[in-house]
Design a protein that fits this description.
single chain; 353 residues; alpha/beta; 3-stranded antiparallel beta sheet; globular; binds flavin mononucleotide
Length: 353
Amino acid sequence: VSGYDLARPVLFRLGGGDAESTHEWTLRRLAGTPGWALAALRRRYGIAAPTRVFGLDFPNPVGLAAGMDKDGAALAAWPALGFGFVEVGTVTWHEQPGNDRPRVFRLRASHAVINRMGFSNAGAAALAHRLGTLRRAGAVGVPVGISLGKSRVTPLDEAVGDYLASLKLLRPYADYLAVNVSSPNTPGLRSLQDREQLDELLAELRAAAGGTPLLVKLAPDLTDAAIAEALQVCLDRGVAGVIATNTTLRRDGLAPADLVAGEQAGGLSGAPLTDRARAVVAFIHRETAGGLPIVGVGGILNPSDAVALVDAGASLVQLYTGLIYRGPGLVRACARALSDGLSENLSRKRVPA
Ligand SMILES: Cc1cc2nc3c(=O)[nH]c(=O)nc-3n(C[C@H](O)[C@H](O)[C@H](O)COP(=O)(O)O)c2cc1C
């Protein structure tokens, strides 16, 4: 029994059981932890498994997935929990409240979550300000990716300008930039994964990103043919890597106890996504002959899931839902499993000491 097994029932009861209330409480606690304490935790618990991908040095290949810390509120705390990189956002050009609450639902028997946040965030300018302050204080110490999305008020045919404005403002603070065209919770957003629209978007963003690696995050619900098309556009436009995958609109693999909760609208994450995320990573790896670095994400609930994603072709992994059900011990266990060379693939990719 880990400390988190004792904390979880208490955490899950906060805010009358509203998952987002627990989230907010935890973020406040993490943000309020003093820097010296975080540095001590990081020294004690940080797992070193140095990995170099798209020109960046990662202390270990296990990252925090987008959406957990949209505004970078607790950015300095994540490395202390063992994360080797953090993806903040998704941020939009305009500040926006997102959908009405409740909008995050735990499906406990399935180790899953459904969310329809709808990109609630404080906007690109607020994030730029926050990251500027943290960078000047040297308070982070691991690579930071910034996930970019489209503001809800911006019509789909003006999406390029909306992404571009955020990118130009935030690029100085990003180690990499992620183009989120795969959230199911902004109407029409996923159509930006179609060949023509993606090409137009990436042409502009890639030109403005300069030397900053630009990544594209894909949905797990695309057909193989659609993924192959998107990959071709990514390769043609000089994208540095792909993140696979975002949440799914499918409802396969739910436990009977969760079938009612499963009717909530939104994207499903966690254990029901494990196999599909792995299959998508494997497909991308095959399709690009290993030529496009992959960040594998989706349903990592155990270290073996992280190892499986790397064996399928991922160079880095990220998690979100696993942190809710397993706590920070999972992050360290994943980093340790990958550092122990349990994965053939990673030991071959590892920078020599
Ligand atoms: C509450 C919640 C909010 C999320 N918000 C975002 C987001 O803003 N941008 C994004 O790219 N992905 C977002 N995601 C998707 C995760 O980054 C990840 O791709 C997905 O949850 C699968 O990983 P997991 O099974 O480890 O959670 C969100 C997921 C959850 C559960």
